[in-house]
Amino acid sequence: MALLHRSVPRSGGVRPVSRETFTPWPGLATAVLGAAIAWGVHQALPEVPWLTASVVLGIAAAHLPRIRTFVRGAARPGLSLAGKRLMRIGIVLLGLGLGLDDVMGLGWATVAMVVAVVAATFLGTLWLGRRLGLRGDQPLLIATGYSICGASAIGAVSEVSGSDEEDVAASVALVTLCGTLAIAVLPLLQGPLGLTDPEFGRWVGASVHDVGQVVATAQTAGPDALGEAVLVKLMRVALLAPLVAAVAFSVRARRRGVRTASGRRPTPVPLFVAGFLAAAALRATGLVPDAALEWAHAAQEALLAAALFGLGSAVHLPTLARTGGRAAVLGLSAWAVVAGVSYAGVLLTM
């Protein structure tokens, strides 16, 4: 978009053109820089997940006196682009982290338990969020983040629901906050709840949101717990695609006959979801070298970190504060639901 002002004097000369150009590059560069700083924070404080640090830094950048003018002005197009496009690419790469053969090796009882946990958490959180009167798509996004895989799932669903950036950022902040608290709280409960190390690992994998937070929490109980936690968590991640497809179908049904701004009808299954499934299928073939999987994982983390910085920069804290109390109630309630249902599921399937 540009504003072009020309003035042709009588002498026939042309005055210089004044052009204000909106380009994504300043914002994209800012998102990359923010992700890099967040990585440094994670290296200095390993208990702080990289993605969580990215969101927090994005929020801070949007409110610091001198930086916020740039973030809300020249950098806004690129930061918005990062929050959408980079998120989609990161979600596709997330599919390469799925070991579908290992996941299915857990048995059908565990598969049923994970599906039940996801369904109960999603539906219960969505219902409570609407009863609390949270704005926009926050109930849907928070329910998705708690039931599947935190920020990545929120980003995926927001792509098909057309959610407001501020709703997305607020939901990511709440989900990552509770997931980070789980790193400190859940290990303290292993003894009182009478869980063996493998049982504790499955409980963590079924109840903690982000993959990195699952690893940080489960590793406190040793390698047996960590292995079980990662496999159960990956099973939850595998449910991301059908959930996003269901949301896309619902949105398409509500907007039947309505075309997007580009003139096309909303697709029933977004391209990035198909890419996620294709990546998971490719991983299952065993043809992808371990080195390539490591590079893909690093790229996925970096892309999601930059995307979440962009989303965090869209948060306006005064607006968030007006629904903060209700969002906190929803977050804590959802945390209790996912922890309680998953604990019961672990006891029934071990």
Short description:
This protein is an all-alpha fold. The chain is built from 16 helices and two strands.
Written overview of the protein:
The chain contains 16 helices and two strands. It is mainly α and 350 residues long. The protein has a two-stranded antiparallel ribbon with strand order 1-2. Helix 7 runs parallel beside helix 9 (165-189) and helix 10 packs antiparallel against helix 11. The longest helix is centred in the last third of the chain and has 33 residues, at 317-349.
Q: What's the total count of β strands?
A: 2
Average predicted local confidence, pLDDT: 80
Which structural class is indicated by helix and strand composition? mainly alpha
**End-to-end C-alpha gap:** 59 Å
| Strand order of the biggest β-sheet | 1-2
Helical amount: over 70%
Tell me the series of helices and strands, N- to C-terminal.
Answer: EEHHHHHHHHHHHHHHHH
Biggest pleated-sheet summary? 2 strands, antiparallel
Q: What proportion of the residues form beta strands (DSSP E)? A: under 5%
Name the overall outline: globular
Would you identify the regions where 5 or more consecutive residues have pLDDT less than 50?
Answer: 1-20, 257-268
Total DSSP helices: 16
Gyration radius (Cα, Å) is 22 Å
List the helices and strands and how they pair.
Layout: E1 2-5, E2 18-21, H1 25-44, H2 50-61, H3 67-72, H4 76-94, H5 100-104, H6 108-131, H7 138-147, H8 151-161, H9 165-189, H10 197-207, H11 211-218, H12 223-238, H13 240-254, H14 271-285, H15 290-312, H16 317-349
Helix pairs in contact: 1-2, 1-4, 1-15, 2-9, 2-15, 4-8, 4-14, 4-15, 6-7, 6-16, 7-8, 7-9, 7-16, 8-9, 8-13, 9-11, 9-16, 10-11, 10-12, 10-16, 11-12
